[in-house]
Amino acid sequence: MTAADEMEQLDRRLIVATQAGLPLVPQPYHALADQLGTTPALVMARLRAMLERGTIRRIGAVPNHYAIGYTANGMSVWDVPDERVDELGTRIGALDFVTHAYHRPRALPAWSYNLFAMVHGSSREEVLTKVAQIRELLGADCRASDVLFSTKILKKTGLRIAG
Amino acid sequence: MRERTAAGEIDAVDRRIIDALQGDFPICERPYAAAAEALGIAEEELLARLQSLLDRKVLTRFGPMFQIERMGGAFVLAAMAVPEADWERVNDAVNALPEVAHNYRRESALNTPFNMWFVLATETKDGIPAAVGKIEAATGLPVYAFPKLREYFVEMKLSVRGAA
User: Fold this and answer.
1) A140 shares a domain with A98
2) How far, in Å, CA of A23 to CA of A2, rounded?
């Protein structure tokens, strides 16, 4: 096995060991090192490397949106010209109430929307007010739009990779 | 609503912890001590409060957030138009698949027929068409996949809402 393979395998074991959370002990990286049979220095180096590469987006608290007051979430969807979507998506992503913004393919004729922006708020009214701000920002580039509210969580297990 | 009760028990220190620690948790010998110092509280208090926030489900997790695409995996949003009469059968069939990470019922102002929205998470890119095929075979309904063509940068933080 090459050194690169070994690192990839260690990264994978680190993901499996931390996907449910970081140990809540004063020295969590030491605890992980003990668990994985390696050194704290290597655990910290691999976490830094994964952060740098983007395999880890961030390390920290993941709040339950509902519990911290965001009881309404709206998936706003927009039909904008393809040649304008990157510029518009970048501007929408910069709005402080947008938590995700993506360019996605249309599924014509059933679905003409190519820009998705998730908006969170304390009520549907608040979400709709914010969606109206996006509408204003898009101006004439908005050819059609809709907003989909979640009415029920049917499943939420998140990502789990096998150990 | 139960979630409201949990939010009502978030005090000013909890709020500062949630608002400050949504990213940039340190990678060092004593990371909780370093984070606690920045918040002006003791290490033991931060650990106890994080445990309590997790127990009360105010936080769903505390730790690294992974982007599986960088490990060769895939994460794809998909939707179906499910007839009301068939809802329960289709819902059971979709949720039974381990590749389905989240599933939400959604309704829209314009009454889009797409009322079931789920995220497929697989360890390899080939896993996505395989999962789509399994769902279509199990339900007899078409699955529309909306893979992200581009993700736009967003600020990661949602501050705690409500009276301070």
Assistant:
1) yes
2) 30
Task: For residue A58, tell me if it sits in a domain.
Answer: no
What's the pLDDT score for residue A86? 98
More confident residue, A161 or A71: A71
What are the CA-CA distances from residue B142 to residues B78, B118, B132 (Å)?
10, 14, 9
* Distance from C-alpha of B130 to C-alpha of B38, rounded to nearest angstrom: 47
Phi (first) and psi of residue B135, to 5 degrees: -70, -40
Digit-coded pLDDT (tens) for B141-154:
999 999 999 999 77
Q: Do A80 and A44 share a structural domain?
A: no
Pair B93, B140: CB distance under 8 Å: no
**Residue of chain B nearest A69, judged by CA positions:** B161
The CB density around residue B4, as the number of other CB atoms within 10 Å, is: 12
A30 interaction partners in chain B (CB closer than 8 Å): 29
The reply to whether residue A102 touches residue B150, judged by beta carbons under 8 angstroms, is: yes
Q: What pLDDT, on the 0 to 100 scale, is given for residue A152?
A: 82
Cα A83 from Cα A60, distance rounded (Å): 36
pLDDT one-digit tens code per residue, B52-74: 999 998 998 999 998 877 778 88
Cα–Cα distance, A25 to B76 (Å, whole number): 35
pTM above 0.90, yes or no: no
For the record, the structure tokens of B57 come out as 């489900």
Structural domain count, chain A: 2
Nearest to B66 among A19, A101, A152 (CB): A19
CATH fold label, B68-146: Alpha-Beta Plaits (3.30.70)
**Out of A47, A85, A149, closest to residue B107 by CB:** A149
